[in-house]
Amino acid sequence: MNTAPINLQEEYAKTEIAKILNLLDEELVGLAPVKSRIREISALLLIDKLRRNLGITSANPGLHMSFTGSPGTGKTTVGLKMADILYQLGYIKKGHLLTVTRDDLVGQYIGHTAPKTKEVLKKAMGGVLFIDEAYYLYKPDNERDYGAEAIEILLQVMENQRDELVVILAGYKEPMDKFYESNPGLSSRIANHIDFPDYSTEELLKIAKIMLDEQQYQLTPQAEVALAQYIDRRKEKPLFANARSVKNALDRARMRQANRIFDSRGQVLTKKELVNLEPEDILQSSVFN
């Protein structure tokens, strides 16, 4: 057994994990419990790697994960960062993330599901397979459904090829909880369950400003107030998707700004007028009706 001392800071620096975790902090607003959990997992994986380097035997850490939460809360972004971390630490060989849904895995007729699922798994090998809305794989009310076949193949690969593939199952929390209750074999293979909270209005406003800044737009102070009101109202309506809904709202606001400017053609335009979103660009949304 190797007994030479290890410089933890040197080992940490070698992996570039710090850079990835810092990017996670910079790129994602809020989500403190998620970031904390990713740091904990990263620490466990780094220490496990150092133990193995010293010849200390231990059970392999479970790498399969479950991400639960509403749409637009950063699950795919965190999945990408997790793939980077696993790659830097040598737990996966390629480090890519393949995002799929039920339609990519489940066939329409007998004999169709197995080759479809195996083809997806082949593409994902060496990286992370991210299955969005994973609960749709299981439809117990339909005896002619082939989702159970896809789950069975997944279970085999998650158990027997843990060194070659990491699976992240993602979706709304309540349906995912029921999905795991109905599929205890899946649940037992997932070591890390991470719940993604909804964003607050203040966080969504911050995200909106980042999105606009990337496209060289800005909100006037009155437009910022209007957008906060929009977010509060939109959150109460069906199909709210956090950052995704905010992005859609900004796209429509930019369209209204363009129409407003076009309708007033004839005047000389300033850069400020082309950059600024005004309150009316927000307040014309149907959520205020």
Automatic annotation (TrEMBL):
GO terms for molecular function: ATP binding; ATP hydrolysis activity. Keywords: ATP-binding, Chloroplast, Nucleotide-binding, Plastid. Residues 61-200 form the AAA+ ATPase domain. InterPro entries: AAA+_ATPase (IPR003593), AAA_lid_6 (IPR041627), ATPase_AAA_core (IPR003959), CbxX/CfqX_mono (IPR000470), CbxX/CfxQ (IPR000641), CbxX/CfxQ_RuBisCO_ESX (IPR050773), P-loop_NTPase (IPR027417). Belongs to the CbxX/CfxQ family. PANTHER family: AAA-TYPE ATPASE FAMILY PROTEIN / ANKYRIN REPEAT FAMILY PROTEIN, AAA-TYPE ATPASE FAMILY PROTEIN _ ANKYRIN REPEAT FAMILY PROTEIN. NCBIfam families: cbbX_cfxQ. This is Rubisco expression protein. It comes from Tryblionella apiculata.
